[in-house]
Design goal:
Residues 27-101 form the General stress protein 17M-like domain. The protein starts with 24 loop residues before the first strand and ends in a 7-residue tail after the last helix. The chain is elongated, with a radius of gyration of 26 Å. It has helices at residues 33-45, 72-96, 104-128, 152-167, and strands at 25-30, 53-69, 135-150. It contains four helices and three strands, in the order E-H-E-H-H-E-H. By secondary structure, it is α+β, with helices and mostly antiparallel strands. It folds into two domains: 25-65 and 141-167, Alpha-Beta Plaits, CATH 3.30.70; 71-133, no CATH class.
Length: 174
Amino acid sequence: MSSPFSGSARSTQGLPSLPTPPTGWPIGSYGTYEEAQRAVDHLADNDFPVQEVTIVGVDLMLVERVTGRLTWARVLGGGAASGAWFGLFVGLIMGIFSEQSAWLGPLLFGLGAGVVFGLIFAAVTYASTRGRRDFSSSSQIVAGRYDVLSQPKHAEQARDMLARLAMGGPATQQ
């Protein structure tokens, strides 16, 4: 299975190594990626050569969803937590390579040092913004619509199959 961001699950033979515009004829246009994915899945379920199909996100936009307000307590808590995880990892590695009975000391030292450095780095980073960004957010790129393209020799067949899907009728291979 592949995601729209991780590349394709198919072999890279014949695929361009540099970003290039997609080719093919439009066979469907959908409001969500899930609908476009469902259309391609329908084609695959009906033995259509889906290796000749491309899903293209059109009218791309960056969407930043605000997830909360940042306060000193939240920033320092997050810094301490992330520092603790990293310190725990480093302490565990140090403990593995130390004497058999002395693994707890390096583990606790790594944890403590991680918390301290996490607090310092979080405080310095947050203070450097001087209140210009007192919120946390999550960003993603989304498309206004998703077009499904097929290579010309199979485009008509694909359009017919997707039209039957849209009408809710049985899908038959030509």
